[in-house]
Amino acid sequence: MNALTRSAAAYWNSSIGKKLVVAVTGLAMVLFLAGHLTGNLLIYAGKEAFDEYAEFLHTAGHGALIWVARVGLLTVLVLHVWATILLTRENKAARKQEYAYKATIQASKSSRIMIWSGLTVLAFIVFHILHFTVRTNSHLAEIAKESPYEMVIAGFSGGFLQALVVLFYVIAMSLLCSHISHGVASMFQTLGFRSKKAAGLIQLISLGYAAVIWVGFVSIPVAILLGFVRSN
Ligand code: HEM
Predict the structure, then answer these.
(1) In this structure, which residue's CA is closest to atom 23 in ligand 1?
(2) pTM given for the model
(3) Which pLDDT tens digit goes with each residue over 57-70?
(4) CATH topology for the 15-97+111-225 domain
(5) Which of 45, 130, 187, 198 has the most Cβ atoms closer than 10 angstroms to its Cβ?
(6) Please, where are the H alpha helices in 60-156?
(7) Does 103 score more than 70 pLDDT?
(8) Virtual CA dihedral for 201, 217, 118, 19, nearest 10 degrees?
(9) Pocket (CB within 6 angstroms of ligand 1)
(10) 125 CA to centre of ligand 1 in angstroms
């Protein structure tokens, strides 16, 4: 083992090292969400704009860019979940005895449900990739060959099943944003930016960011289901 591998292993074994991994990978995913939302909002600009954007994503760098992004995102997601599991286990082991009463009076609801919101987001990501990237529904897969715009419209409109899909998206987005609102604030703390003075501002940034992400993502399936954005 060389010196670099040794110090990386020592860092990973320390609790602050794992916290830093959770913070940096969380930041990468938060930035991905901003980019994904910006691209998705092109649905409001119409079929041509959205399909052009989808075409760009798939052809940039001769098709290599999307694979670099996929591998990067998957690595970041695995590290985030793995470090979180290890930290939770360490915290439990350190707290040999459960508190006589739960010391969660001060903790916000978002922070208490981090594990559940995180697991729902994981389930959502699997569903979402099967829905729009792998396209296990052969009808959607056929439409996607012609137009990604039409695929998204068909994915969120047309019947009872699509209404259920929209409901699941809304629930998942709500838990995602609860997760983000606490996650962004924790990230600032881990990265050492959380002084007493800055606490209010950080709270505002975390809640504001989560709110923008929620409104943006939820608006798309809901607008399609209600017929505000239609098939061309
Ligand atoms: C209503 C909101 C959303 C819409 C309309 C939407 C739309 C899409 C579409 C159309 C694709 C397929 C891209 C392609 O392969 O051409 C996609 C992929 C993806 N989306 Fe979303 N998305 C939404 C929300 C989210 C959220 C909240 C997340 C993360 C928590 C997310 C994560 C991903 C990931 C990881 C992929 C796979 C990228 C790939 O490998 O191609 N999406 N999304």
Answers:
(1) 217
(2) 0.88
(3) 999 999 999 999 99
(4) 3 helical TM bundles of succinate and fumarate reductases (1.20.1300)
(5) 187
(6) 64-94, 109-112, 114-128, 138-146, 148-156
(7) no
(8) -40
(9) 36, 40, 54, 70, 73, 121, 125, 128-129, 132-133, 148, 152, 169, 176, 217, 220-221
(10) 8
